[in-house]
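Example 3.2
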Amino acid sequence: MVAISRESLNALRASLFRDLGGNAATYLQDAGYGGAGAVYDAFTHWLAAKGGPAPEALSADDFARSVAEFFAASGWGTLEFTAGQNGVATIDSNDWAEAVTADGSTLSGCYFTTGLLVDFFSRITDAQISVMETECRSMGASRCRFLVGTPQRLQEIYDQMAAG
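Structure, written as tokens:
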């Protein structure tokens, strides 16, 4: 796995949005999705190096704690992973790496992250997974919040949000 700095990731995001406008989101999601397998493998190796079991063998609480520790140790930022009700998990972060732009301008969300999280969590469950960011620090929120669930459940939540 190759590490890139927060500054490099955010400079890339800023350049893509400058040159591609809203189409940049699709490219960033695709890149996140494409690299998630290596991130998941690194998570699996990280767990094994700590003497832990495979991700799918962890209890829900141990999984939440381990995911938070792994992403923090990898430089993404601190997060709180909560297995929620109705099959929707919540990921909150007050310092997520993708949410700050290199030049201090605001962008519209953590698209690389949403792509990465879709594939990462899909490797642990048999269900099809979607990720929706509902709050983002790059848009002025105090945190980034990602919802993880089935496409159908996230569509229901999106429809409820859109209706007010």
